[in-house]
Design goal:
eight-stranded parallel beta sheet; about 10% strand; about 290 residues
Length: about 290
């Protein structure tokens, strides 16, 4: 297998892969990636030490070859879904170009008899409807990655659109299942949630990989979580979650679920399925709370 693009840093905090895209880094010299990881500590309290955990879900991850360093794109999804499922994570699959990315994730769900959250890029609606038909029988929910519009190279390649509430409502009606919008990170995204009333609103800046405003998901959840909760069925969050303490802080701020991305990749690359099981135990074991402080 070709060289992995993860450096297996002792601490996955954004500094080891600054600016590496394709790869594991982020835009703006990884400033939002770094900020995501650092900010959760501001919200630790004694209550978070004993608070029950929300469900932990694998984030929608694509780009096994260009971003992770796998030799084979589809093999990456099979290994990732298998490892996450065996470890205890809830599942997600993502979308991208070429279609092999969503089709590979779907094939992995089907191979292991699982369902998952399916997050689709903001294509023109006709193409989104096609994808919904592909995944309908294996999806727990349909989500639209609204901030993927800000991936300039992909936007130009596959005609991504900046979605309005009206176009999203049409997708919601077509899906006829729980519906999410992911990539809420701007005040105008909050206004979109107020108009749409999705089942799930996912605060995310793609782990700092999207060209958007400077900031972090912990602070955004703290500022807008209660407003989003009043206009959506649930609020989820991803970005920089590295410990049980981070996850319980997210729950205290209102997150009904959290999603984990890079740590799952690192665990898989380092130790395969057993690595992902170790990661899940570490994230859910209270003995590790003090180590996170």
């Amino acid at each position: 297998m070709s060289g992995y693009k993860c450096y297996f840093c002792t601490k996955c905090d954004g500094y080891g892969c600054i600016g590496e895209l394709p790869g594991m880094g982020g835009v703006f010299s990884s400033v939002n990636f770094i900020g995501n990881c650092a900010a959760w500590k501001k919200y630790y309290t004694k209550e978070t030490e004993t608070a029950p955990l929300p469900p932990i879900r694998l984030a929608p991850i694509t780009g096994g070859v260009e971003n992770v360093g796998y030799d084979d794109e589809e093999a990456f999804y099979f290994d990732l879904i298998k490892g996450a499922s065996e470890a205890g994570f809830l599942l997600s699959i993502g979308d991208g170009y070429p279609d092999l990315k969503i089709q590979g994730g779907l094939a992995a769900l089907q191979q292991y008899g699982k369902t998952g959250a399916v997050f689709i890029k903001p294509y023109p609606n006709a193409r989104i409807f096609e994808r919904i038909d592909w995944v309908r029988n294996d999806a727990e929910l349909i989500g639209i990655d609204i901030d993927s519009y800000n991936i300039v190279t992909m936007r130009n390649l596959v005609q991504l659109e900046q979605k309005s509430a009206q176009t999203l409502k049409a997708i919601q009606r077509y899906a006829q299942m729980p519906f999410a919008i992911k990539g809420i990170f701007l005040p105008e995204d909050v206004e979109l949630v107020k108009d749409l009333h999705p089942d799930i609103a996912v605060i995310s800046n793609h782990g700092g990989r999207i060209e958007t405003r400077r900031g972090n998901t912990a602070d955004f959840l703290a500022e807008y979580g209660s407003v989003l909760q009043s206009h959506a069925g649930e609020v989820w969050v991803d970005g920089g979650l590295r410990s049980r303490a981070d996850i319980t802080a997210a729950k205290k701020l209102g997150a009904a679920q959290v999603m984990i991305g890079r740590p799952c990749i690192t665990a898989l690359l380092r130790d395969g399925s057993s690595g992902m099981q170790q990661l899940y135990r570490r994230l859910t074991t209270q003995d590790n709370m003090q180590q996170a402080k």
